[in-house]
Write a structure and sequence with these properties.
By secondary structure, this protein is an alpha+beta fold. The chain has 4 domains: about 5-115, Rossmann fold; about 130-135 and about 225-335, D-amino Acid Aminotransferase, Chain A, domain 1 (2-Layer Sandwich), CATH 3.30.470; about 140-220, ATP-grasp fold, A domain (Dna Ligase, domain 1); about 340-500, Gcn5-related N-acetyltransferase (GNAT) (Aminopeptidase, 3-Layer(aba) Sandwich). The chain is about 30% helix and about 30% strand. It has 15 helices and 24 strands. It has a 7-stranded mixed beta sheet with strand order 18-19-20-21-22-24-23, sandwiched between helices. A 6-stranded mixed beta sheet has the order 4-3-2-1-5-6, sandwiched between helices. A 6-stranded antiparallel beta sheet has the order 7-12-8-9-10-11, covered by helices on one side. It is globular, with a radius of gyration of 25 Å. It starts with a strand and ends with a strand.
């Protein structure tokens, strides 16, 4: 059985990169008879999605000739218009910085097909806070800043810092600042190092601080190069070191870095084992870890890339395994079977996906009384606080969390020991498939096992779908608490529902 895959990119962005990993990926796909492969040209795809049209996606069937020539002129006359359901898999290979609302537009396709790296999760991953939320214990010290005043404080504290902007790639969104005499020295890419009398003229050269920047101290070990480790669905594929020929602090192949194959160390494997399951739970399966050398020689995480991961073709050229074929082999297996839904006890590595699902309801409004940013750390704390008669469970499909449910005591008072509350949330792309009902039936069964007699559900009154959902599962309407919640500059009523487990 062939796997139909659509690959999304702006081919002309690679016109001057004949050795690009993306071009070689296309060529490998075109040669592989187990794939029915298509190129989805970025601009035409965006036009369709901006109209909300998911039934007529522009697609060019890949042949050896097309994979060799579309980088200089995309043959638009050969485009077919295909429904999203026609594809078993979609893989976005678009270079950052992404065009406006790129990932938001791709989200429209999530309910209709499968992505190798889910766009809605990539949106969260782009945020400057995300890396530390998952891999903070393996990173150098870092700060998030939103103002020139905060940047000045950090520069004063560390003296030599690296600033990373979101939605950037290939070392182009990274700047180094250090104190130099009474001034500030700025280094960006291969531009000549410049010295300024103060921080003020530097700000505009770095970018818009409103994006929120991730700032780290500069690590002297950076001059030894960095290490790219390729990971597919939690499995380490290979690693290689990148080192600038000129001794520059940016060790990127798009600048002037040379590469050499290097075994992945046990410490690096431990980092992957501790973090990759969290990415996998969010549907982020093809990863590129970038390691630097810490002050005591330990590997520290600089980035975990989930976008246009390069390096698969390079590994074989360096004398290593055929990483490209390993990637394609996994894609064939992944594309042929989705597996069956599994409900299991929530673990810490599920926390990022649970937070992302809950964030959707928070952002939607009128669903929960929570507000603001929901982090994985907040869910790890909630998981650690569970007692013998409470818990969280997740519904997973191929390791990806599509929904979760909670059972918690209604009150710590002794007289309420047989009463509990429930909550159930499903990923926006997976709604309407009966997954919420699977979770709700499961948690009601768990409540019976834990000898609860009475279940309570509290639903914001405007959320008619949730009220109807609970009624279908044996709850009954008790009453309405008037103006009990205040959120979004408005008062909200809450519907109280109950279910007697007799």
């Amino acid at each position: 059985m062939t796997v139909a895959i659509g690959v999304i990119c702006d081919a002309l962005a690679y016109r001057d990169q004949s050795g690009s990993d993306v071009i070689r990926f296309y060529q490998a796909l075109a040669r592989d008879q187990e794939f029915e492969s298509f190129h989805l040209p970025l601009l035409d795809l965006r036009a369709s999605l901006m109209r909300g049209d998911t039934n007529r996606l522009p697609a060019l069937r890949l042949s050896d000739r097309a994979a060799a020539t579309l980088w200089t002129a995309e043959p638009l006359r050969d485009l077919q218009l295909l429904p999203a359901e026609r594809f078993d898999l979609l893989f976005c290979r678009t270079l950052k910085p992404f065009p406006p609302r790129h990932l938001e537009l791709l989200q429209q396709l999530e309910p209709l097909t499968r992505f190798l790296n889910r766009p809605s999760s990539k949106i969260r991953q782009l945020a400057s806070w995300f890396l530390a939320d998952i891999a903070g214990s393996f990173m150098p010290a870092s700060r998030l800043i939103r103002s020139s005043e905060a940047l000045a404080d950090v520069l004063e504290f560390w003296g030599d810092i690296v600033i990373k902007r979101p939605n950037s790639t290939q070392g182009r969104g990274v700047s180094r600042l250090r104190r130099s005499g009474g001034g500030v020295q700025l280094s960006q890419g291969l531009r000549q190092v410049e010295t300024f009398p103060s921080l003020e003229p530097v700000m505009g050269l770095i970018g818009d601080v409103a994006e929120e920047w991730l700032v780290m101290p500069f690590l002297p070990g950076t001059c030894k190069g960095d290490k790219r480790v390729l990971v597919v669905d939690g499995e380490v594929v290979a690693g290689y070191r990148r080192r600038s020929r000129s001794g520059h602090w940016i060790n990127n192949v798009s600048f002037d870095a040379d590469c050499e194959l290097e075994a992945v160390s046990e410490d690096e494997r431990c980092v992957v084992a501790a973090t990759a399951p969290a990415y996998r739970s969010m549907g982020l399966r093809v990863l590129g870890y970038d390691f630097l050398t810490g002050d005591t020689g330990e590997p520290v995480v600089s980035e975990i890339n989930v976008g246009n991961i390069g390096g698969f073709s390079r590994v074989a050229e360096l004398g290593g395994p055929d990483a490209m074929q390993q990637l394609l082999g996994w894609m064939r297996i992944f594309g042929q079977s989705e597996g069956d839904p599994l409900i299991e006890s929530a673990q810490n590595h599920h926390a990022p996906a649970m937070a992302a699902i809950y964030q959707q309801s928070v952002d939607q409004g009128g669903v929960t009384m929570d507000a603001g940013l929901i982090t994985a750390e907040s869910f790890r704390q909630r998981l650690s606080a569970c007692g013998e008669r409470s818990g969280f469970w997740v519904l997973t499909l191929g390791g990806e969390v599509l929904g979760w449910t909670e059972l918690r005591a209604y009150s710590p008072r002794w007289g309420y020991r047989f009463t509990a509350e429930t909550s159930t949330y499903v990923h926006a792309s997976a709604r309407g498939r009966g997954l919420g009902s699977k979770l709700q039936s499961f948690v009601i069964g768990k409540a019976r096992e834990m000898r609860y007699r009475h279940l309570v559900a509290k639903v914001v009154s405007r959320n008619d779908q949730s009220v109807a959902f609970h009624l279908r599962h044996g709850f009954e309407h008790v009453g309405i608490q008037k103006e009990v919640g205040f959120l979004g500059n408005s008062w909200h009523d809450v519907v109280i529902l109950q279910c007697l487990l007799v």
